[in-house]
Specification:
The chain is built from 15 helices and 16 strands. The chain is α/β, with parallel strands linked by helices and 470 residues long. The protein has 3 domains: 255 residues, 3-Layer(aba) Sandwich (Rossmann fold), CATH 3.40.50.620; 140 residues, Cysteine-tRNA ligase, C-terminal anti-codon recognition domain (Four Helix Bundle (Hemerythrin (Met), subunit A)), CATH 1.20.120.1910; 48 residues, no CATH class. A hairpin with a 2-residue loop joins β6 and β7. The chain binds adenosine monophosphate and zinc ion.
Length: 470
C-alpha cells in the first residue's frame, strides 16, 4: 500500500519510498531537557508517535532514533541568548547535570503516560561529543568552516542549497530569525559548530577538542547522532515547524556538505499548539504540563485523544473548554466500546473478509498523510456496523488502537470514573504527606480537594493514607 506524506522539502504530498525496501529510518528531534516538556512539545511527539505506528501498521519496519539535548545550547536557535541548561540550574539551585537527568526522566515519564512508544534509540548529546568533533573535523577538511574569535563556524556560502527547506530567500530567513549581530560571522546566517569562546564565565559543560576546550553548537548533535544510528541516508526526519528555518536548515547544510549527497528524503513538520492569545513556549514560563492537566481532572490519554482530533499540519488552539469537550467525546467512545466488550460472545467467529475490508479502509486513511480524523470515522463505522459480531468489533478496535494508542479496550471496572492512574495519586499523597510534615495545611487541603474533584477520597489512619474511588 502507498503511504503518502506532505514533504516540507518539496512542498508536495509524496509516496514514501524508503532507501531500503520495507524499512523506514526515522529521526525525530528530541527535547532540550532544562524544564518539563509543555503540552505543545508533547503534541509534536504524539504526532511523531502516530506517524511511526501508522508506518508499522502498514507493514514497514521502523528504525527510530531521537536525541536528548542535554548540552546547554542557547535560548535562540541562532547562537544567541542565554544558556538554557544553566538557566535551569540557577533557577533550581542544582547542577546542570542534575537538571538534565531530572527533566529527561520527567519527559520520558510524560511520554509513557501519553502512550508514546520509546524510540529504538534515545541518544544524549553529552555522550556523543566525540562523534560531533569528528563530524566538524570532516567539515573542516572539506573546507566548509572557518574559525573566528575562537569559535568554529559553518560558512553557508559554501552550500548553495542553503535555503531549500524553508523555501525562503536568505533575506527572508534573516528577517525571520531575528539574529543577534555577531561581528565574527562572515554571513549572518552562518552558525557555530564548536564554541571555545563562551560568553559565560562559568560554563560547566565543556570538553577538550582540537579547537580548544569548549562545547558544540546545537545543530551538530542531530546530524552526528542521526548518522551514527541510522546511516547517512535517512528516510524521514521530523520536528515542529519552528525548526524549519534554522535548526533543520542548518542540519541539512552541514550534513549534506559532510556526506556530499542528499541526506533526508522526507521532512515532516508538526504545527504548533497555541493558546488563543499566542504561542506556548518553554522559555516564556507560561506553559502547561501533563501534570497540570492531571491536576485539572484530565487523563494524559484525554490529551492524546484531543490531539488526534486535529490534523498534525494545522495549528491547534488549546483551551480547557475544548479539552473538556474532547474528554466527553472520548468517554462516550469508551462507554460504547465497554458495551461491546461486555456483550461479546466467546463463540463468535471472526470472518476474515470482514476484518480485512475494514483494515484496508483504516490503512487507506492513515497512509493518506495521517488522516487520523477519517481513521476515527472508520472506527465509528465498525462500532455501528450491525453486520459485524462483537468479537470482530473488538478485534478491529484493538487493531486500530495499535495506531491510536488510547487503551480503547482497557476498561478498569473498579475505578471506572477515574481519569488518573495510581502513580499520579500516590505521588500526590506523598506530596501531601510532605506538606503536612511541613505544616503546610493549605497545600495539604488543596491536594485533598484536587483528588476529590476527580472522585478520589483520601482516608487517613495511623497506618498512613489510603484512597478509594467514590
Ligand atoms: P524543544 O525542547 O524546545 O527543542 O522542543 C521540542 C519539540 O517540540 C520540537 O520538535 C519543537 O519543534 C516542538 N515544539 C515547540 N513548541 C511547540 C508548540 N507550541 N506546539 C507544538 N510543538 C512545539
Ligand atoms: Zn534536531
Amino acid at each position: 500500500m502507498k503511504f503518502s506524506v506532505y514533504n516540507t522539502l518539496t512542498g508536495k504530498k509524496e509516496e514514501i519510498i524508503p532507501v531500503e525496501e520495507g524499512k523506514v529510518r526515522l529521526y525525530t528531534c528530541g527535547p532540550t531537557v532544562y524544564n518539563y516538556a509543555h503540552i505543545g512539545n508533547l503534541r509534536t511527539y504524539i504526532f511523531e508517535d502516530v506517524l511511526k505506528k501508522s508506518l508499522e501498521y502498514i507493514g514497514f519496519e521502523v528504525k527510530h532514533a531521537m536525541n536528548i539535548t542535554d548540552v546547554g545550547h542557547l535560548e535562540s536557535d541562532s547562537d544567541s541568548g542565554e544558556d538554557k541548561m544553566a538557566l535551569g540550574a540557577s533557577r533550581e539551585k542544582k547542577t546542570v547535570w542534575e537538571i538534565a537527568r531530572f527533566y529527561e526522566e520527567a519527559f520520558l515519564k510524560d511520554c509513557e503516560l501519553l502512550n508514546i512508544k520509546r524510540p529504538y534509540v534515545v541518544c544524549r548529546a553529552t555522550e556523543h561529543i566525540e562523534d560531533m568533533i569528528k563530524f566538524i573535523q570532516l567539515l573542516e577538511q572539506k573546507g566548509f568552516t572557518y574559525i573566528a574569535n575562537g569559535n568554529v563556524y559553518f560558512s553557508i556560502e559554501k552550500f548553495p542549497d542553503y535555503t531549500k527547506l524553508a523555501n525562503l530567500s536568505i533575506d527572508e530567513l534573516k528577517a525571520g530569525s531575528r539574529v543577534e549581530v555577531d561581528p565574527h560571522k562572515k554571513n549572518p546566517m552562518d552558525f557555530v559548530l564548536w564554541f571555545t569562546n563562551s560568553k559565560f564565565s562559568n560554563q560547566i559543560m565543556q570538553w577538550e577538542s582540537p579547537w580548544g576546550k569548549g562545547f558544540p553548537g546545537w545543530h551538530i548533535e542531530c546530524s552526528a547522532m542521526s548518522m551514527k544510528y541510522l546511516g547517512d541516508r535517512i528516510d524521514i526526519h521530523c520536528g515542529g515547524v519552528d525548526h524549519i528555518p534554522v535548526h533543520h536548515t542548518n542540519e541539512i547544510a552541514q550534513s549534506e556538505s559532510a556526506v556530499g549527497h542528499k541526506w533526508v528524503n522526507y521532512w515532516m513538520h508538526g504545527e504548533f499548539l497555541v493558546f488563543d492569545n499566542g504561542k506556548m513556549s518553554k522559555s516564556n514560563g507560561g506553559f502547561l504540563t501533563v501534570s497540570k492537566l492531571i491536576e485539572k481532572g484530565f487523563s494524559p490519554l484525554d490529551y492524546r485523544y484531543f490531539c488526534l482530533q486535529s490534523k498534525y499540519k494545522k495549528q491547534l488552539v488549546f483551551s480547557f473548554e475544548s479539552l473538556k469537550e474532547a474528554q466527553k467525546s472520548f468517554s462516550r467512545l469508551k462507554s460504547k466500546i465497554k458495551g461491546i466488550l461486555e456483550s461479546k460472545n466467546a463463540e463468535d467467529m471472526l470472518n476474515e473478509d470482514n476484518i480485512k475490508s475494514y483494515q484496508a479502509k483504516f490503512a487507506e486513511q492513515i497512509s493518506d498523510d495521517l488522516n487520523i480524523a477519517n481513521a476515527f470515522t472508520i472506527l465509528s463505522e465498525v462500532i455501528k456496523d450491525e453486520a459485524l459480531n462483537n468479537s470482530e468489533k473488538v478485534y478491529l478496535i484493538e487493531d486500530f488502537d495499535r495506531v491510536f494508542s488510547l487503551n480503547l479496550t482497557e476498561i478498569n471496572n473498579a475505578n471506572e470514573n477515574l481519569s488518573v492512574d495510581d502513580t499520579y495519586i500516590n505521588n500526590l499523597i506523598q506530596e501531601r504527606n510532605q506538606a503536612r510534615k511541613e505544616k503546610n495545611w493549605a497545600r495539604a487541603d488543596e491536594i485533598r480537594n484536587i483528588l476529590l474533584d476527580q472522585n478520589i477520597e483520601l482516608i487517613d489512619s495511623k497506618e498512613g493514607t489510603a484512597w478509594k474511588g467514590k
